[in-house]
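User: Quick sanity check before I run a bigger batch. Here is a single chain. Can you write out its predicted 3D structure?
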Amino acid sequence: MEREGRRSGPARTEEESTAPTTAPRRAIVVSSMYTEAETAERIGREAYSYRFVYRAFAPLLQRWGSTSEVTRPESRLDYALWRARQQNLEPAHLSFLPLHLVYLTQQAPNIAFPFWEFPNIPDKSFGNNPRNNWLRIADRLALILTASSFTRDAFVRAGVKSPIHVVPVPVASRYFEVPSWERGQRTTLQTPCYLFPQPEMPPAPAPSPWARESSAGLSLRALLLQGYKSAIKPRLPARLDRYVGVAAGVVRGVRAARAEDVRACVPALPELELAGVVYTSILNPFDPRKNWQDLLSAYLLALGDCEDATLVVKLVVCPELAVPALNGIVGHYRGMNLAHRCKLVFITKYLSDADMAELVRGSTYYVNSARAEGSCLPLQDFLAAGRPGLAPTHTAMADYFDDKLGFPIGSHPEPASWPHAAGEGYTTTWQRIVWQSLHDQFRHSYQVAKQDQSYYQALASNGRGRMMEFAGAENVWPKLAAALDSIQPEKGAHQSLLQNAWSSPIRQAS
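Assistant: Done. Predicted structure follows.
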Protein backbone atom coordinates (compact mmCIF):
# COMPACT_ATOMS: atom_id res chain seq x y z
CA MET A 1 0.00 0.00 0.00
CA GLU A 2 1.33 3.41 -0.97
CA ARG A 3 1.95 5.89 1.84
CA GLU A 4 2.73 9.57 1.67
CA GLY A 5 6.31 10.26 2.60
CA ARG A 6 9.87 9.37 1.73
CA ARG A 7 11.75 6.16 1.25
CA SER A 8 13.76 6.52 4.45
CA GLY A 9 13.39 8.61 7.59
CA PRO A 10 14.17 12.32 7.28
CA ALA A 11 17.61 13.30 8.51
CA ARG A 12 17.65 14.92 11.93
CA THR A 13 19.15 18.37 12.25
CA GLU A 14 21.95 19.08 14.70
CA GLU A 15 19.54 21.01 16.90
CA GLU A 16 17.18 18.05 17.00
CA SER A 17 19.92 15.54 17.84
CA THR A 18 21.37 17.63 20.66
CA ALA A 19 18.12 19.06 22.07
CA PRO A 20 17.39 18.05 25.66
CA THR A 21 14.74 15.37 26.00
CA THR A 22 11.51 16.40 27.72
CA ALA A 23 8.29 14.54 28.39
CA PRO A 24 6.22 14.52 25.18
CA ARG A 25 2.99 16.47 25.14
CA ARG A 26 -0.29 14.81 24.21
CA ALA A 27 -1.68 15.04 20.70
CA ILE A 28 -4.63 13.81 18.68
CA VAL A 29 -4.43 13.12 14.95
CA VAL A 30 -7.99 13.02 13.62
CA SER A 31 -8.84 11.10 10.46
CA SER A 32 -11.94 12.03 8.49
CA MET A 33 -13.36 11.57 5.00
CA TYR A 34 -13.34 15.16 3.76
CA THR A 35 -12.30 18.64 4.81
CA GLU A 36 -14.34 21.46 6.33
CA ALA A 37 -14.25 23.33 3.01
CA GLU A 38 -15.96 20.38 1.31
CA THR A 39 -18.86 20.20 3.78
CA ALA A 40 -21.49 21.84 1.58
CA GLU A 41 -20.53 19.70 -1.42
CA ARG A 42 -20.51 16.43 0.54
CA ILE A 43 -23.54 16.93 2.76
CA GLY A 44 -26.01 14.08 2.49
CA ARG A 45 -23.41 11.61 1.23
CA GLU A 46 -21.98 8.67 3.14
CA ALA A 47 -20.73 9.55 6.63
CA TYR A 48 -21.41 13.27 6.09
CA SER A 49 -22.64 13.78 9.65
CA TYR A 50 -19.24 12.84 11.12
CA ARG A 51 -17.86 16.19 9.95
CA PHE A 52 -20.37 17.96 12.22
CA VAL A 53 -19.42 15.69 15.09
CA TYR A 54 -15.72 16.48 14.73
CA ARG A 55 -16.58 20.18 14.48
CA ALA A 56 -18.49 19.94 17.78
CA PHE A 57 -15.65 18.10 19.55
CA ALA A 58 -12.75 20.14 18.12
CA PRO A 59 -12.54 22.76 20.93
CA LEU A 60 -12.53 20.04 23.61
CA LEU A 61 -9.97 17.94 21.76
CA GLN A 62 -7.70 20.99 21.50
CA ARG A 63 -8.10 21.46 25.24
CA TRP A 64 -6.86 17.91 25.82
CA GLY A 65 -3.88 18.08 23.46
CA SER A 66 -2.49 19.36 20.20
CA THR A 67 -4.95 18.46 17.43
CA SER A 68 -4.44 17.99 13.69
CA GLU A 69 -6.54 16.42 10.95
CA VAL A 70 -5.89 14.24 7.91
CA THR A 71 -8.15 13.04 5.13
CA ARG A 72 -7.29 9.92 3.11
CA PRO A 73 -5.67 8.35 6.21
CA GLU A 74 -4.52 5.30 4.26
CA SER A 75 -1.79 7.48 2.72
CA ARG A 76 -1.40 10.34 5.19
CA LEU A 77 -2.00 9.13 8.73
CA ASP A 78 1.34 7.48 9.49
CA TYR A 79 3.25 10.48 8.20
CA ALA A 80 1.14 12.80 10.38
CA LEU A 81 1.94 10.66 13.42
CA TRP A 82 5.64 10.78 12.58
CA ARG A 83 5.46 14.58 12.25
CA ALA A 84 3.78 14.82 15.65
CA ARG A 85 6.59 12.89 17.29
CA GLN A 86 9.17 15.13 15.61
CA GLN A 87 7.50 17.95 17.54
CA ASN A 88 7.91 16.04 20.82
CA LEU A 89 4.25 15.03 20.89
CA GLU A 90 2.86 11.65 21.91
CA PRO A 91 -0.07 11.18 19.50
CA ALA A 92 -3.16 9.02 19.44
CA HIS A 93 -5.29 8.45 16.35
CA LEU A 94 -9.00 9.34 16.55
CA SER A 95 -11.27 8.41 13.64
CA PHE A 96 -14.61 10.11 13.03
CA LEU A 97 -15.88 7.54 10.54
CA PRO A 98 -18.08 4.42 10.49
CA LEU A 99 -16.02 1.38 11.46
CA HIS A 100 -16.03 -0.11 7.95
CA LEU A 101 -14.28 3.07 6.76
CA VAL A 102 -11.82 3.38 9.65
CA TYR A 103 -8.11 3.05 8.82
CA LEU A 104 -6.08 1.41 11.59
CA THR A 105 -2.47 2.37 12.14
CA GLN A 106 0.26 0.46 13.96
CA GLN A 107 2.02 3.67 14.94
CA ALA A 108 -0.32 4.92 17.70
CA PRO A 109 -3.36 3.90 19.74
CA ASN A 110 -6.49 3.84 17.57
CA ILE A 111 -9.69 5.46 18.84
CA ALA A 112 -12.99 5.47 16.95
CA PHE A 113 -16.22 7.40 17.40
CA PRO A 114 -18.85 5.36 15.54
CA PHE A 115 -22.53 6.21 15.38
CA TRP A 116 -24.76 3.15 15.42
CA GLU A 117 -28.55 2.97 15.66
CA PHE A 118 -29.24 -0.77 15.60
CA PRO A 119 -29.34 -3.25 18.49
CA ASN A 120 -26.58 -5.46 17.04
CA ILE A 121 -23.40 -4.69 15.11
CA PRO A 122 -22.14 -6.47 11.95
CA ASP A 123 -20.12 -9.50 13.02
CA LYS A 124 -19.33 -11.07 9.64
CA SER A 125 -17.43 -10.12 6.51
CA PHE A 126 -20.37 -9.79 4.14
CA GLY A 127 -19.70 -8.75 0.58
CA ASN A 128 -16.35 -10.59 0.78
CA ASN A 129 -15.02 -7.55 2.63
CA PRO A 130 -13.46 -8.13 6.08
CA ARG A 131 -13.78 -4.41 6.85
CA ASN A 132 -17.56 -4.91 7.04
CA ASN A 133 -17.05 -7.01 10.17
CA TRP A 134 -17.42 -4.33 12.82
CA LEU A 135 -16.68 -6.77 15.64
CA ARG A 136 -13.28 -7.53 14.11
CA ILE A 137 -12.46 -3.83 13.72
CA ALA A 138 -13.75 -2.89 17.17
CA ASP A 139 -11.56 -5.45 18.93
CA ARG A 140 -8.46 -3.85 17.41
CA LEU A 141 -9.20 -0.42 18.87
CA ALA A 142 -7.60 0.98 22.01
CA LEU A 143 -10.79 2.88 22.82
CA ILE A 144 -14.34 3.30 21.48
CA LEU A 145 -16.31 6.48 22.08
CA THR A 146 -20.07 6.45 21.53
CA ALA A 147 -22.69 9.19 21.65
CA SER A 148 -25.29 7.09 23.49
CA SER A 149 -25.76 4.19 25.85
CA PHE A 150 -27.80 2.47 23.13
CA THR A 151 -24.72 2.27 20.88
CA ARG A 152 -22.51 1.20 23.78
CA ASP A 153 -24.93 -1.59 24.67
CA ALA A 154 -24.94 -2.83 21.06
CA PHE A 155 -21.14 -3.19 21.15
CA VAL A 156 -21.18 -4.81 24.59
CA ARG A 157 -23.91 -7.20 23.45
CA ALA A 158 -21.70 -8.25 20.55
CA GLY A 159 -18.86 -9.15 22.91
CA VAL A 160 -16.49 -6.31 22.00
CA LYS A 161 -13.44 -6.41 24.27
CA SER A 162 -12.16 -2.87 23.76
CA PRO A 163 -12.99 -0.21 26.39
CA ILE A 164 -16.14 1.77 25.55
CA HIS A 165 -17.02 5.22 26.91
CA VAL A 166 -20.25 7.15 26.35
CA VAL A 167 -19.42 10.76 25.44
CA PRO A 168 -22.37 12.78 24.06
CA VAL A 169 -21.72 15.16 21.19
CA PRO A 170 -21.42 18.71 22.62
CA VAL A 171 -24.16 21.20 21.69
CA ALA A 172 -22.82 24.55 20.46
CA SER A 173 -23.30 27.35 22.96
CA ARG A 174 -25.14 29.53 20.40
CA TYR A 175 -28.22 27.27 20.66
CA PHE A 176 -28.55 27.84 24.41
CA GLU A 177 -28.56 31.59 23.64
CA VAL A 178 -31.50 31.53 21.18
CA PRO A 179 -34.40 33.64 22.55
CA SER A 180 -37.51 31.78 23.68
CA TRP A 181 -40.33 31.30 21.21
CA GLU A 182 -43.22 33.71 21.62
CA ARG A 183 -46.68 33.76 20.09
CA GLY A 184 -46.97 36.32 17.34
CA GLN A 185 -43.26 36.37 16.50
CA ARG A 186 -42.18 36.56 12.85
CA THR A 187 -38.83 35.47 11.43
CA THR A 188 -37.56 35.88 7.89
CA LEU A 189 -34.96 33.45 6.60
CA GLN A 190 -33.00 34.69 3.59
CA THR A 191 -32.88 31.40 1.71
CA PRO A 192 -34.75 30.03 -1.34
CA CYS A 193 -37.60 27.70 -0.43
CA TYR A 194 -40.47 25.77 -2.00
CA LEU A 195 -43.89 26.45 -0.48
CA PHE A 196 -47.13 24.44 -0.63
CA PRO A 197 -49.92 25.14 -1.33
CA GLN A 198 -48.32 27.05 -4.18
CA PRO A 199 -48.89 30.82 -3.93
CA GLU A 200 -50.62 32.50 -6.83
CA MET A 201 -47.97 33.68 -9.24
CA PRO A 202 -48.29 35.86 -12.35
CA PRO A 203 -48.47 33.77 -15.50
CA ALA A 204 -45.17 33.41 -17.32
CA PRO A 205 -45.08 34.82 -20.87
CA ALA A 206 -45.40 32.22 -23.58
CA PRO A 207 -42.01 31.32 -25.04
CA SER A 208 -41.32 32.50 -28.56
CA PRO A 209 -41.18 29.61 -31.06
CA TRP A 210 -38.24 31.37 -32.66
CA ALA A 211 -36.15 31.53 -29.46
CA ARG A 212 -35.54 27.88 -28.63
CA GLU A 213 -31.82 28.47 -28.21
CA SER A 214 -29.59 31.43 -27.61
CA SER A 215 -27.96 32.75 -30.76
CA ALA A 216 -24.53 32.30 -29.17
CA GLY A 217 -25.18 28.63 -28.38
CA LEU A 218 -26.70 28.03 -31.80
CA SER A 219 -23.84 29.69 -33.67
CA LEU A 220 -21.20 27.83 -31.63
CA ARG A 221 -22.79 24.45 -32.30
CA ALA A 222 -23.22 25.33 -35.98
CA LEU A 223 -19.58 26.39 -36.19
CA LEU A 224 -18.36 23.16 -34.56
CA LEU A 225 -20.58 21.05 -36.78
CA GLN A 226 -19.41 22.86 -39.89
CA GLY A 227 -15.76 22.42 -38.87
CA TYR A 228 -16.27 18.71 -38.27
CA LYS A 229 -17.95 18.17 -41.63
CA SER A 230 -15.41 20.17 -43.61
CA ALA A 231 -12.12 19.35 -41.87
CA ILE A 232 -12.52 16.08 -39.96
CA LYS A 233 -15.19 13.93 -41.56
CA PRO A 234 -13.48 13.70 -45.01
CA ARG A 235 -10.38 12.25 -43.32
CA LEU A 236 -12.27 9.59 -41.32
CA PRO A 237 -13.17 6.11 -42.56
CA ALA A 238 -16.93 5.81 -43.04
CA ARG A 239 -17.18 3.24 -40.24
CA LEU A 240 -15.48 5.53 -37.74
CA ASP A 241 -17.69 8.44 -38.79
CA ARG A 242 -20.73 6.33 -37.92
CA TYR A 243 -19.27 5.63 -34.46
CA VAL A 244 -18.73 9.36 -33.93
CA GLY A 245 -22.36 9.97 -34.87
CA VAL A 246 -23.58 7.33 -32.42
CA ALA A 247 -21.39 8.76 -29.64
CA ALA A 248 -22.66 12.27 -30.33
CA GLY A 249 -26.23 11.01 -30.09
CA VAL A 250 -25.52 9.37 -26.72
CA VAL A 251 -23.95 12.58 -25.41
CA ARG A 252 -26.96 14.59 -26.58
CA GLY A 253 -29.26 12.11 -24.83
CA VAL A 254 -27.31 12.31 -21.58
CA ARG A 255 -27.30 16.11 -21.73
CA ALA A 256 -31.04 16.16 -22.36
CA ALA A 257 -31.66 13.79 -19.43
CA ARG A 258 -29.52 15.93 -17.14
CA ALA A 259 -31.32 19.05 -18.30
CA GLU A 260 -34.61 17.43 -17.28
CA ASP A 261 -33.14 16.39 -13.92
CA VAL A 262 -31.95 19.85 -12.96
CA ARG A 263 -35.32 21.52 -13.45
CA ALA A 264 -37.22 21.90 -10.20
CA CYS A 265 -40.83 20.87 -10.58
CA VAL A 266 -42.01 24.00 -8.72
CA PRO A 267 -40.71 27.58 -8.60
CA ALA A 268 -38.73 28.74 -5.57
CA LEU A 269 -39.55 31.71 -3.37
CA PRO A 270 -36.55 33.97 -2.62
CA GLU A 271 -37.06 33.96 1.17
CA LEU A 272 -38.98 32.19 3.90
CA GLU A 273 -41.19 34.00 6.40
CA LEU A 274 -42.02 31.98 9.51
CA ALA A 275 -45.01 32.85 11.70
CA GLY A 276 -47.63 30.96 13.68
CA VAL A 277 -46.87 27.43 14.94
CA VAL A 278 -43.79 26.22 13.07
CA TYR A 279 -42.53 22.63 13.04
CA THR A 280 -39.07 21.88 11.65
CA SER A 281 -37.46 18.61 10.59
CA ILE A 282 -33.96 18.15 9.16
CA LEU A 283 -33.40 14.95 7.19
CA ASN A 284 -31.75 13.19 4.28
CA PRO A 285 -34.62 12.13 1.98
CA PHE A 286 -32.51 9.31 0.49
CA ASP A 287 -32.05 7.66 3.90
CA PRO A 288 -34.88 5.16 4.53
CA ARG A 289 -34.39 5.47 8.29
CA LYS A 290 -35.73 9.04 8.23
CA ASN A 291 -39.30 8.00 7.35
CA TRP A 292 -40.37 11.35 5.89
CA GLN A 293 -43.43 9.75 4.25
CA ASP A 294 -45.13 9.31 7.64
CA LEU A 295 -43.99 12.80 8.63
CA LEU A 296 -45.76 14.43 5.68
CA SER A 297 -48.99 12.44 5.83
CA ALA A 298 -49.39 12.76 9.62
CA TYR A 299 -48.81 16.51 9.51
CA LEU A 300 -51.17 17.18 6.60
CA LEU A 301 -53.95 15.03 8.02
CA ALA A 302 -53.54 16.32 11.58
CA LEU A 303 -53.21 20.06 10.86
CA GLY A 304 -54.47 20.42 7.30
CA ASP A 305 -57.20 22.84 8.38
CA CYS A 306 -54.84 25.06 10.44
CA GLU A 307 -53.75 27.96 8.24
CA ASP A 308 -51.24 29.22 10.81
CA ALA A 309 -49.36 25.89 11.02
CA THR A 310 -46.14 25.36 9.03
CA LEU A 311 -43.88 22.34 8.58
CA VAL A 312 -40.37 23.19 7.36
CA VAL A 313 -38.44 20.22 5.97
CA LYS A 314 -34.75 20.99 5.52
CA LEU A 315 -33.44 18.46 3.00
CA VAL A 316 -29.87 17.41 3.78
CA VAL A 317 -28.51 16.90 0.27
CA CYS A 318 -25.48 17.97 -1.75
CA PRO A 319 -26.06 20.54 -4.53
CA GLU A 320 -26.06 18.04 -7.40
CA LEU A 321 -28.78 15.95 -5.73
CA ALA A 322 -30.89 18.83 -4.44
CA VAL A 323 -33.32 19.01 -7.35
CA PRO A 324 -33.78 15.22 -7.77
CA ALA A 325 -34.45 15.02 -4.02
CA LEU A 326 -36.94 17.87 -4.16
CA ASN A 327 -38.73 16.45 -7.21
CA GLY A 328 -38.97 13.03 -5.58
CA ILE A 329 -40.44 14.28 -2.31
CA VAL A 330 -42.80 16.70 -4.09
CA GLY A 331 -43.94 13.86 -6.35
CA HIS A 332 -44.83 11.82 -3.25
CA TYR A 333 -46.61 14.83 -1.73
CA ARG A 334 -48.69 15.34 -4.87
CA GLY A 335 -49.47 11.64 -5.03
CA MET A 336 -51.15 11.83 -1.61
CA ASN A 337 -53.65 14.28 -3.14
CA LEU A 338 -54.39 15.93 0.22
CA ALA A 339 -55.92 19.40 0.10
CA HIS A 340 -54.72 21.55 3.01
CA ARG A 341 -54.56 25.08 4.33
CA CYS A 342 -51.52 24.52 6.53
CA LYS A 343 -48.15 25.32 4.96
CA LEU A 344 -45.50 22.85 3.86
CA VAL A 345 -42.02 24.18 3.04
CA PHE A 346 -38.93 22.49 1.62
CA ILE A 347 -35.41 23.95 1.80
CA THR A 348 -32.61 22.38 -0.26
CA LYS A 349 -29.85 24.99 0.09
CA TYR A 350 -27.00 24.41 2.55
CA LEU A 351 -27.55 26.63 5.59
CA SER A 352 -24.71 28.40 7.35
CA ASP A 353 -24.49 28.38 11.15
CA ALA A 354 -26.15 31.81 11.20
CA ASP A 355 -28.97 30.67 8.90
CA MET A 356 -29.50 27.56 11.00
CA ALA A 357 -29.74 29.67 14.14
CA GLU A 358 -32.41 31.79 12.42
CA LEU A 359 -34.34 28.66 11.46
CA VAL A 360 -34.23 27.50 15.07
CA ARG A 361 -35.37 30.95 16.28
CA GLY A 362 -38.35 30.90 13.93
CA SER A 363 -39.43 27.38 14.95
CA THR A 364 -41.87 26.33 17.64
CA TYR A 365 -41.08 22.59 17.66
CA TYR A 366 -38.63 20.08 16.21
CA VAL A 367 -40.07 16.87 14.72
CA ASN A 368 -38.33 13.52 14.33
CA SER A 369 -40.16 10.58 12.74
CA ALA A 370 -37.10 8.37 12.19
CA ARG A 371 -36.98 4.62 12.57
CA ALA A 372 -33.49 4.73 14.13
CA GLU A 373 -31.05 7.41 15.27
CA GLY A 374 -27.40 7.34 16.29
CA SER A 375 -27.84 10.65 18.15
CA CYS A 376 -30.12 13.13 16.27
CA LEU A 377 -27.99 16.22 16.66
CA PRO A 378 -30.69 18.59 15.31
CA LEU A 379 -33.12 17.47 18.02
CA GLN A 380 -30.46 18.16 20.65
CA ASP A 381 -29.79 21.62 19.18
CA PHE A 382 -33.49 22.56 19.11
CA LEU A 383 -34.06 21.31 22.66
CA ALA A 384 -31.08 23.38 23.82
CA ALA A 385 -32.73 26.38 22.17
CA GLY A 386 -35.92 25.82 24.16
CA ARG A 387 -37.90 24.26 21.31
CA PRO A 388 -39.75 21.16 22.53
CA GLY A 389 -39.69 18.06 20.37
CA LEU A 390 -42.03 15.56 18.81
CA ALA A 391 -39.94 12.40 18.66
CA PRO A 392 -39.90 8.69 19.49
CA THR A 393 -38.00 7.55 22.57
CA HIS A 394 -36.09 4.77 20.85
CA THR A 395 -32.39 4.16 20.03
CA ALA A 396 -30.06 7.06 20.94
CA MET A 397 -32.89 9.50 21.67
CA ALA A 398 -33.92 7.44 24.67
CA ASP A 399 -30.88 8.83 26.52
CA TYR A 400 -32.23 12.36 26.66
CA PHE A 401 -35.80 12.69 25.34
CA ASP A 402 -39.05 12.06 27.23
CA ASP A 403 -42.45 13.64 27.92
CA LYS A 404 -40.89 16.38 30.06
CA LEU A 405 -39.19 17.78 26.95
CA GLY A 406 -41.99 17.39 24.43
CA PHE A 407 -44.37 14.88 22.89
CA PRO A 408 -43.13 11.27 22.63
CA ILE A 409 -44.20 9.19 19.61
CA GLY A 410 -44.91 5.48 19.93
CA SER A 411 -42.86 2.85 18.09
CA HIS A 412 -42.12 -0.88 18.03
CA PRO A 413 -39.46 -3.12 16.43
CA GLU A 414 -39.60 -4.45 12.89
CA PRO A 415 -37.04 -6.34 10.72
CA ALA A 416 -34.46 -4.24 8.87
CA SER A 417 -31.02 -4.39 7.27
CA TRP A 418 -27.77 -2.68 8.19
CA PRO A 419 -27.31 0.40 5.98
CA HIS A 420 -24.15 -0.87 4.26
CA ALA A 421 -25.33 -4.49 3.95
CA ALA A 422 -27.36 -4.31 0.75
CA GLY A 423 -28.51 -7.74 -0.40
CA GLU A 424 -27.89 -9.41 2.98
CA GLY A 425 -31.59 -9.59 3.88
CA TYR A 426 -32.91 -8.87 7.36
CA THR A 427 -29.88 -8.58 9.63
CA THR A 428 -31.25 -6.44 12.46
CA THR A 429 -34.26 -4.38 13.56
CA TRP A 430 -35.30 -0.77 13.62
CA GLN A 431 -38.39 0.92 15.07
CA ARG A 432 -41.65 1.26 13.16
CA ILE A 433 -43.33 4.55 14.05
CA VAL A 434 -46.95 4.34 15.24
CA TRP A 435 -48.52 6.67 12.68
CA GLN A 436 -51.56 7.47 14.78
CA SER A 437 -49.31 8.51 17.66
CA LEU A 438 -47.42 10.90 15.39
CA HIS A 439 -50.70 12.31 14.07
CA ASP A 440 -52.13 12.80 17.55
CA GLN A 441 -48.99 14.49 18.87
CA PHE A 442 -49.14 17.00 16.02
CA ARG A 443 -52.67 17.90 17.17
CA HIS A 444 -51.73 17.96 20.86
CA SER A 445 -48.61 20.08 20.38
CA TYR A 446 -50.49 22.58 18.19
CA GLN A 447 -53.15 23.03 20.88
CA VAL A 448 -50.45 23.53 23.54
CA ALA A 449 -48.69 26.22 21.49
CA LYS A 450 -52.00 28.01 20.88
CA GLN A 451 -53.70 27.64 24.24
CA ASP A 452 -51.29 26.63 27.04
CA GLN A 453 -48.27 28.92 27.09
CA SER A 454 -47.25 27.93 30.62
CA TYR A 455 -47.02 24.24 29.69
CA TYR A 456 -45.09 25.10 26.54
CA GLN A 457 -42.61 27.21 28.50
CA ALA A 458 -42.16 24.41 31.04
CA LEU A 459 -41.26 21.98 28.24
CA ALA A 460 -38.91 24.55 26.71
CA SER A 461 -37.17 25.22 30.02
CA ASN A 462 -36.81 21.50 30.72
CA GLY A 463 -35.26 21.03 27.28
CA ARG A 464 -32.64 23.69 27.84
CA GLY A 465 -31.77 22.32 31.27
CA ARG A 466 -31.65 18.68 30.15
CA MET A 467 -29.41 19.42 27.18
CA MET A 468 -27.06 21.57 29.24
CA GLU A 469 -26.65 18.70 31.67
CA PHE A 470 -26.44 16.02 28.97
CA ALA A 471 -24.49 17.72 26.18
CA GLY A 472 -23.28 21.13 27.36
CA ALA A 473 -19.60 21.41 26.49
CA GLU A 474 -18.46 21.84 30.10
CA ASN A 475 -20.38 18.73 31.13
CA VAL A 476 -19.08 16.68 28.19
CA TRP A 477 -15.48 17.70 28.82
CA PRO A 478 -14.85 15.55 31.96
CA LYS A 479 -16.23 12.47 30.17
CA LEU A 480 -14.06 13.05 27.11
CA ALA A 481 -10.95 13.79 29.15
CA ALA A 482 -11.44 10.70 31.32
CA ALA A 483 -11.85 8.51 28.25
CA LEU A 484 -8.74 9.85 26.50
CA ASP A 485 -6.73 9.79 29.72
CA SER A 486 -7.48 6.08 30.06
CA ILE A 487 -5.19 5.29 27.11
CA GLN A 488 -1.72 4.30 28.27
CA PRO A 489 0.58 3.84 25.25
CA GLU A 490 3.79 1.90 25.87
CA LYS A 491 6.66 4.36 25.89
CA GLY A 492 9.07 3.80 23.02
CA ALA A 493 7.02 1.06 21.36
CA HIS A 494 5.52 3.26 18.68
CA GLN A 495 8.86 5.00 18.08
CA SER A 496 10.57 1.75 17.18
CA LEU A 497 7.66 0.65 15.01
CA LEU A 498 7.74 3.98 13.23
CA GLN A 499 11.49 3.87 12.62
CA ASN A 500 11.15 0.41 11.08
CA ALA A 501 8.28 1.61 8.92
CA TRP A 502 10.17 4.63 7.58
CA SER A 503 13.26 2.57 6.76
CA SER A 504 11.25 -0.04 4.85
CA PRO A 505 12.22 -0.23 1.15
CA ILE A 506 8.60 -0.71 0.07
CA ARG A 507 7.59 2.84 1.02
CA GLN A 508 6.98 5.05 -1.98
CA ALA A 509 6.33 8.75 -2.21
CA SER A 510 2.84 9.63 -3.38
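The CA atoms of residues 52 and 328 lie 26 Å apart.

User: Great, the batch can go ahead then.
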